[in-house]
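Run log // design_07
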């Protein structure tokens, strides 16, 4: 199942559900205005249950601390459901936010090829 949501602040999310895996491909600006859209989608995914949660940050052009909070929410939901979390890194500018916040070495990063649907890996 695929769906797309657009928030008011040039933020888009492609959402795909397959075999217990919830994938979110993010594009645009993940900030205070856009975060409620992603939060609602993540919480909905948790209510439906999942074995794996995948976030692709490679399409983001901007992310602030609210976006960082959304990534941590995804991690918390995955931990709560005892599911796996995988994150495709963003641009160097996005990754710098994780570095300065001390989270770069604590999150489960993956490359886009390993995380693509049908690859069998997260």
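design_07 sequence
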């Amino acid at each position: 199942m695929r769906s797309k949501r657009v928030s008011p602040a040039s933020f888009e999310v492609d959402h795909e559900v397959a075999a217990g895996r919830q994938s979110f491909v993010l594009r645009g600006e993940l900030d205070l205005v856009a975060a409620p859209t992603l939060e609602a989608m993540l919480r909905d995914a948790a209510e439906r249950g999942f074995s794996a949660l995948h976030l692709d940050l490679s399409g983001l052009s901007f992310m602030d601390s609210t976006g960082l909070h959304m990534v941590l929410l995804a991690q918390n939901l995955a931990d709560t459901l005892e599911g796996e979390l995988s994150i495709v890194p963003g641009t160097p500018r996005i990754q710098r936010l994780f570095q300065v916040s001390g989270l770069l070495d604590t999150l489960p990063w993956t490359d886009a090829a390993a995380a693509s649907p049908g690859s069998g890996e997260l």
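The radius of gyration is 13 Å.
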